[in-house]
Amino acid sequence: MAPRQMHLVGFLQAQNCTIFASSWRHPDSRTDFLTADYFQEIARILERGKFDLGFFDDRLSMPDRYGADHVHTIEHGIRCVKLDPVVTLTMMGAVTKHLGLGSTASTTYYEPFHVARVFQTLDLMSNGRAAWNVVTSLNDGEAANMGHAETMAHDARYDRADEFVEVVLSHWDAWEDDALIVDKASGRFGDGHKVHRLNFQGNYLQSHGTFTVPRSPQGRPVLIQAGSSGRGKAFSARWAELVFVAYHDLAGGQREYRAFKSAVAAAGRNPDHVKVATLCNPICAATRAEAEDKAALIEKLPLEIDALSLLSEALNFDFASKGMDEAFSDEEMAGIQGMHAIRDRVVERTGKKNPTVRDFITGSGRGRPRMDMVGGPKEVADKMEEWFTGGACDGFVISAAVIPGGYTDFVEHVVPELQRRGLFRKDYTGPTLRDHLGLPRSTRGDWQAAAAAE
Q1: Which InterPro entries does the record associate with it (predicted)?
Q2: Closest Cα partner for 57 from 230, 221, 225?
Q3: How far is Cα 336 from Cα 359, in angstroms, rounded to an integer?
Q4: Which residue among 364, 379, 410 closes a domain?
Q5: What is the CATH number for 151?
Q6: Final residue in a domain of this structure, among 338, 364, 390
Q7: pLDDT digits (tens), the chain, 454 positions
């Protein structure tokens, strides 16, 4: 049996900066983010490093909740340019042969047929390298952009998402693998009895008709999810094949990892076929001293307004409505929507049931890279190995504070060290994303047990 090897995912944004709003200010960051070449260079770097996939996080609005205005967002470049990630991925797929191509699409604001067609088309055009990150969308800015007065209630979003995923998977199963014939001599294009009509009627969605895109080399795209609430984790255990998490310490990660894998098994699925990758922001160089110099510069880039704007977006609360040292009331804390994990983390880190705005900035770390993985190849690889072999994850989602240098540094310095230790592949073992992830080719109906789960 081959030794277990970690999975690596490049964490990307089709915008003017990375997940860190300050990244565009870095003197070494490229600023031609409106060009295909910008993203194609990232794709080439990730493929050179044998990454499983590059994945686009996405939201359907810019952070314009702070002060109920967008001017500060534009002035400071706080994730304000947001391109369509799937279109961007097609440009990246054109210059790569193996790199997986993952993108976010919302189950709250899109329609199942549209998502099914877009991602299955991408899967065919990339020879089986596509993945769909299933999100329910969580902030009021997205609701406003999409013509809704407010965001759906949290659990209702997931109830709708359960139906949405079932419809998409049913579409992807519509064509049997050998439905196409394309025989000019006989004039027969396909076997009509091997293409199946969908007749779905749910509480939120209905879909009746015949899907238009045949199956791909990997069967269908890989499903990604990153829910952090109890309902979100249950959703991941039921549907996801690759799960993104943000564990904050090794012991906590080990507990969460064990609990999640148990939930996958309880849902009637094989835990080995659901990969868990935790977010990390390695700042690396040839030596630890060089990496520390890089980190010192990166640490100076974020601004207070970055954190205030991103907190307002994530928690659906206007942080401009309170003074910096004014405590949140019990009612305000209970009424915070969006990413509850951020609120809970601030309470835990500060030890305050009613933190102030300033506490939210310092306790959340919003807009600032975590400085817990800074070093040369050995130091960074040591920490990754500890988490991977210690049962806290199956791999890592690698973010960068400099584009493209953050990825280049990791590929040049850390990947060879991981390979030397036998922890990471030296080459791709197959052409599809499922090959990279060690997942079997999807067969029609292989998700039905999950659909039946309560």
Answers
A1: Diverse_substr_monoxygenases, Luciferase-like_dom, Luciferase-like_sf, NTA_MOA
A2: 225
A3: 15
A4: 364
A5: 3.20.20.30
A6: 364
A7: 678 999 999 999 999 999 999 999 999 999 999 999 999 999 999 999 999 999 999 888 888 999 999 999 999 999 999 999 999 999 999 999 999 999 999 998 899 999 999 999 999 999 999 999 999 877 777 777 778 767 777 788 889 999 999 999 999 999 999 999 999 999 999 999 999 999 999 999 999 999 999 999 999 999 999 977 888 899 999 999 999 999 989 999 999 999 999 999 999 999 999 999 999 999 999 999 999 999 999 999 999 999 999 999 988 899 999 999 999 998 988 888 767 778 888 998 899 999 999 999 998 889 888 888 999 999 999 999 999 999 999 999 999 999 999 999 999 999 999 999 999 999 999 999 999 999 999 999 999 876 565 5
Domain count of the fold of the chain: 2
Enumerate the β-bridge partners of residue 135.
106
Instruction: State how far the Cα of 120 lies from the Cα of 97, in Å rounded to an integer.
Output: 17
Q: Which residue has the tokens 């999975």?
A: 7
User: Could you tell me if residue 1 is inside a domain?
Assistant: no
Rounded Cα distance between 257 and 391, Å, is 7
Domain that holds residue 346: 303-364
The sign one gets for the Cα dihedral 263, 425, 102, 212 is negative
| Same-domain check for residues 287 and 319 | no
